[in-house]
Amino acid sequence: xxxxxxxxxxxxxxxxxxxxAHAAVANLCGCGSPxxxxxxxxxxxxxxxxxTFAGRAADLWRYKELLPVVEEADVVSxxxxxxxxLRLAGAGRSLGIDRLYxxxxxxxxxxxxxxxxxAVAVSKALELGVKTLILPTNGNAGAAAALYGARAGIRxxxxxxxxxxFITRLECSVAGADLYLVKGLISDCGKIVARAIxxxxxxxxxxxxxxxxxxxxxxxGKKTMGYEIAEQSGWESPDVILYPTxxxxxxxGVYKAFREMRELGFVDRIPRLVAVQAENCAPIVRAxxxxxxxxxxxxxxxxxxxxxxxxxxxxxxxxxxxxxxSKGCACAVTDxxxxxxxxxxxxxxxxxxxxxxxxxxxxxxxxxxDGRIRRDESVVLLNTGAGIKYPDTQEIAPVYLxxxxxx
Amino acid sequence: xxxxxxxxxxxxxxxxxxxxAHAAVANLCGCGSPxxxxxxxxxxxxxxxxxTFAGRAADLWRYKELLPVVEEADVVSxxxxxxxxLRLAGAGRSLGIDRLYxxxxxxxxxxxxxxxxxAVAVSKALELGVKTLILPTNGNAGAAAALYGARAGIRxxxxxxxxxxFITRLECSVAGADLYLVKGLISDCGKIVARAIxxxxxxxxxxxxxxxxxxxxxxxGKKTMGYEIAEQSGWESPDVILYPTxxxxxxxGVYKAFREMRELGFVDRIPRLVAVQAENCAPIVRAxxxxxxxxxxxxxxxxxxxxxxxxxxxxxxxxxxxxxxSKGCACAVTDxxxxxxxxxxxxxxxxxxxxxxxxxxxxxxxxxxDGRIRRDESVVLLNTGAGIKYPDTQEIAPVYLxxxxxx
Lengths: 407, 407
Hints:
The structure is a homodimer. Chain A has a six-stranded mixed beta sheet with strand order 4-5-13-10-11-12, with helices on both faces. The first copy, chain A, has a four-stranded parallel beta sheet with strand order 8-7-6-9, sandwiched between helices. In chain A, α3 packs across α7, α4 runs parallel beside α5 and α7 packs across α8. The first copy, chain A, contains twelve helices and 14 strands. In chain A, β6, α4 and β7 form a beta-alpha-beta unit. With about 400 residues, chain A is of the alpha/beta class. Helices cover about 35% and strands about 15% of the residues of chain A. Chain A has one domain: Rossmann fold (3-Layer(aba) Sandwich), CATH 3.40.50. β8 of chain A pairs parallel with β14 of chain B.
């Protein structure tokens, strides 16, 4: 068997410090906190450097030594990762930011960054012998789990609010997952999943809880966005990275990546991280403004950016820690600003990105105006998916022509 | 100004042999044939080899010396290209093909291979000073033109059948293109475009005809799929490449790439090329079976694979030449086979590809069964786009759960 030469050593709890073996199925720590993967970075920094990655395939597995999968044969890939880091010259001029970039996660399987988490976590699940996994989802994470599960030969069960974007429902179903719809919120779906896990815990192959942050490896896939931003910037950290924040896993993953890379000697500093939320669902922003270490449940949340409609995230304390420790901040924007920003980016830059991503552009403008971003700073907007997954966000008004029309 | 070091020398007519300068706007040859770009391949083969590309950015501009754009500053890019070449192990076993691969063009901007053509052709149009371009489209080519046009600052006008996929309409409109819908076929749209070109030919900035193959550079963008397949296969040609054939530009482009690469000494042979069409729109297949050099108009065409609903292609003679010269063939499949293949690929491989792409899988099975593909041959399915762009192709049947449901 060919090895990936992963430096993974174990899982650890960022709250109570307990550790767990990585070679057995694990969910939350006994204390209720998510578990994170730990690597022998001291040894890695002696044995490899940034040149190790040069010339490797243009996907996230180029960083395989810093991912949790041990056997090459267990890697389940659809070619995800190494997405473009695009210069936004015109949009940058509009905002007064000289070096504005878009990291475009629309260009991955299922057109959402959730593919990264699914690729790495499904691979590790395959390595650990998982036969069936289940998760609640607002759509994109379910679609990605269904597709990678199909490729791995793992049975996937998905519980999704009926109101989740139709296309993600289609992806789950076409990939052969068992798809369950609920007239309720993702929190209602989570309760059904929790009961199902319990109902099957004595099965010969128990169902694996693949819920956000109850599963330790989706975050490892997402952290590769941070590695790529560094590599694509010539191993220089940008000054600021803005991230749309729902469950917070992407933000936590990017923060973990930069901490690891600093320890590895790949970069010398951690960018200021900015959590962007919608005004009608902004628990992390509220907690940040109140200087709290955890958020509280946001009642009656709603936003056009469905992926960040998360009223209370399991990993809120980790997301907030990333903001405080990186000297970043949190910022909320209105749905109207999100919709306008989506159209503006498409028209100025040809980038038709998802509303979660366009929220970042609106937020960058606010932060530039209030001085929290300076003109000469390098700023990365981490767009999490393609605009085409949400066909109902924009209203359009095409002109109808007769066959004999003249233009 | 930094140069791309393009080896382009001129445009030539593959029918009558006349040549044209590449430094001025050009459409069809006087004889009515499309024009193709010519490069000084003799000089290129002395000055570069396949190692030239190693370590370059993972997009189609890594082949810039063999693309028509002369100034780096004119390159309009959204990070398109260098899409994955995925092994389909399970699907290959089903078909009895040991080395089956999928080149996945779902992972480009606008989730369709049309992005490649638009990137290169819009870049060249910018270089030539074009201010306004117009095209008829079945959807995806229009969406790509709109997005790249927006990035380039070129005004884009699109004439589309009302029945074209809704998401492509949305992309055009959000990107700020002028979108016109017609209750008719793409041929009706083409007539409106032809009149519009004529109406504006005396404008200070005439409208540029960006129609398929009336514009010589979209094919240059598409040919990069061939370069990538060769590079990703270690500069070995696969035995067979299957391509969904509507207008035929992708097929012609891939054939052109392999001819160029053979002349450059990058590869030693040209793969057998297979044109795949739908049974209710198969003019190229019919012409191939009758050993003709041109196709005739297919009456009352219809197929679920909207992108290959082209009853008579302007470049049909070039597509047929590619089939004959490469010792390839043509193959038609039914809509039912296309829909089943789409589901089968998603369930076996986690690849939710467009119906045009899944037609290739159905066709590969037919050709394997009738002996035109052998078990030990390497076979590439060139999938032209993502399944999510066509949300209505598959019927799904999710299960509804009550909040207190047990699984």
